[in-house]
């Protein structure tokens, strides 16, 4: 029975790959694809402190942020919040501290992918709290089903774990909580033909593999249909560390083979690296500390003059309002006295019968 289950898992990987893998321009089919912006350095994103920022593209649902970091939630059917770097690495290391989402049919994924559909994955199924899957694809090749391996893990939906992928031109290695679980050598991937070897971006996200509109194999691989009556389903990511083993500003394909050797690295500083390594904006106190003593005196004098002017303006306004108030009070007193006099005269005439009908002249 167990062997039949794992066989079904392997068969349905075709559908799973089709559900997540796509490219807007495949360099295996054309030489006119845009160049890939390089990271060219390393960077750690701490989502407990900062939001993802401009070096990530956010699609299919917004992220929330809290004490557990970035929260990727399926709040309604169709949600699949995902962030993708707008840069590439050419060889490198990606480390993610993540707590997978619970829920039957819910998939939490960490993916490295290239424009020509090389791919390296970590994937966790919401209904499976004992195993995590490592996988890879070369040039979108899904003709064989022997690449996925399931590894034991303890409570991935309840606890944070460290998922790391280390990628060189010779090997790909998957680490779980610092321990190496799998090593793929270049020659073991169909003689290197299926070995991921072109520049890749990083994608982290959650999706409903068990949605009833998916084909039956994808739903089965994801552990069954997703129950939207139990939403939200949330995956949390504390941090992501991305390291590019190459240095340059851009990567491009020299031909349509997609081989490691065909990739061209443009020398220069990466614009992404400059953006990531730029110092954060200074606070007001930091800007004050950087001023010279003379500048501080000038600023203090200007502030003092401004304060005096504001105080004088406020005093003038109050005095003006006070004078206006006195005039208004005097006018009100006059009106009160006039109305009181008229009221007293009216009462006296009433007492004398001044308004009796018999006394009125016709």
Describe, in short, the structure shown.
The protein has 362 residues and is of the alpha+beta class.
Q: What are the main properties of this structure?
A:
362 residues; single chain; 7-stranded antiparallel beta sheet
Describe the structure.
By secondary structure, the protein is an alpha+beta fold. The protein has 6 helices and 18 strands. The protein has helices spanning 2-11, 13-20, 216-221, 271-277, 284-289, 293-351, and strands at residues 36-37, 42-46, 56-59, 64-66, 69-74, 82-85, 92-99, 106-114, 119-125, 131-137, 149-152, 161-167, 171-176, 179-185, 200-208, 233-244, 250-253, 263-266. Strands 2, 4, 5, 7, 12, 13, 14 and 16 form an 8-stranded antiparallel β-sheet that branches. Strands 3-6-15-8-9-10-11 form a 7-stranded antiparallel β-sheet, with no helix packed on it. The longest helix is centred in the last third of the chain and has 59 residues, at 293-351. It is globular, with a radius of gyration of 36 Å.
Q: Give the termini separation.
A: 120 Å
Please describe the biggest sheet, giving its number of strands, its sense, and whether it closes into a barrel. Answer: 8 strands, antiparallel
Rounded to the nearest angstrom, the radius of gyration is: 36 Å
Average pLDDT value? 82
Task: Determine the number of helices (DSSP H or I, runs of at least 4 residues).
Answer: 6
What are the segments in which pLDDT stays under 50 over at least 5 consecutive residues? 1-19, 339-362
Q: What is the H-and-E element order?
A: HHEEEEEEEEEEEEEEEHEEEHHH
Secondary-structure-based class equals alpha+beta
In helices, the fraction of residues equals 25-40%
Proportion of β residues?
Answer: 25-35%
Shape: globular
* Total count of strands: 18
